[in-house]
Amino acid sequence: MVFNAIFLSILAVIIIASAIYAVAQKDLLYAVIATGVISLILSIYFFVMQAPDVALTEAAIGIALTTIIFVITVRNTSRREDEVPVTKEPDRGDEN
Amino acid sequence: MKKAIVILLLAVVGWALVDAFTHVKFGESRLGDLKNPNTVGAFYLQKTAPELSVANVVTAIVVNYRGFDTLGEVTVLFLAAAGLGSILYRRKEKGAHDTMILKNSSQLLQTGARLIFPAILVLGAYVFIHGHLTPGGGFQGGVIIATGFLLMFMAYKDYHVSHNILTWVESLAGVLFVTVGFWGLIFGGSFLKNTMGTGVLNDLLSGGVIPIVYIAVGFKVAAELTGVLETLLNFKIKK
Lengths: 96, 239
Fold this sequence. Notes:
The structure holds 2 protein chains of 2 kinds.
Chain A: H1 2-24, H2 28-48, H3 52-76
Chain B: H1 2-21, H2 40-52, H3 57-65, H4 67-88, H5 107-129, H6 138-155, H7 163-187, H8 210-233
């Protein structure tokens, strides 16, 4: 019981720290990975609190899919927050 | 000035949340009496096993008691995928692929992906076929299958899934779900009514239409999300 409480407290500290890191970090790739860490710990929390269905959903969607979609987005736009974003139009064939 | 307004708004929202949460009795059992249920939770817990022979109460609620909501959720996901596809998908010449992944990944990832890809597919299928017995279900299984395809997309730059096949799988799964719904409407009196025999508790073939609906949802979600990933990865911006 005590071990459980200590374990969950450490996880709570990590989840808040990575949330702050994700907001503060200027390198968006690191920020995306930090949001993935949030999802990972959140799914551990769901599992500990006896909601394995939600834990599975959070693990599959939050960790894998959302992170990858954000990584693709960062790759297609700009990696750093203070950079000028890509202003060129996406390639749409005959336009321009 | 702006910051002061934001902080003020946050304080108001926070105060409202604190006010709401102080009335919730955390840590107490609010289910009430399980034998004579007078809350919704106790009702579901008591009725699911004898009525439906479904071991996983969450699945019973999501697919059977609240099946129409699940149809709505599937529709929302479909609309999201369709919107993204209509914005980003461009028809190309036959065989031509305009991919943003320009070179093959390392040998390690390629071999590992080839090794683990069938296992991920089997895990996803297991999760949605056993949705009424173990935690998980159509959405989770479908997303797991989509992550398997994602691994192959990342490992091999020439790995592509045909959009025609994805469209067909997705459409047939959706049609199957709605057909089950109308079957219940015709033979049971209400949409998605569970009219089939429920079988024995903890059997694979139990729960009536629940496994059918979850298999349909699993295929639908897997096809939709694989299509989203394929569309996103094949979208290239000229720099």
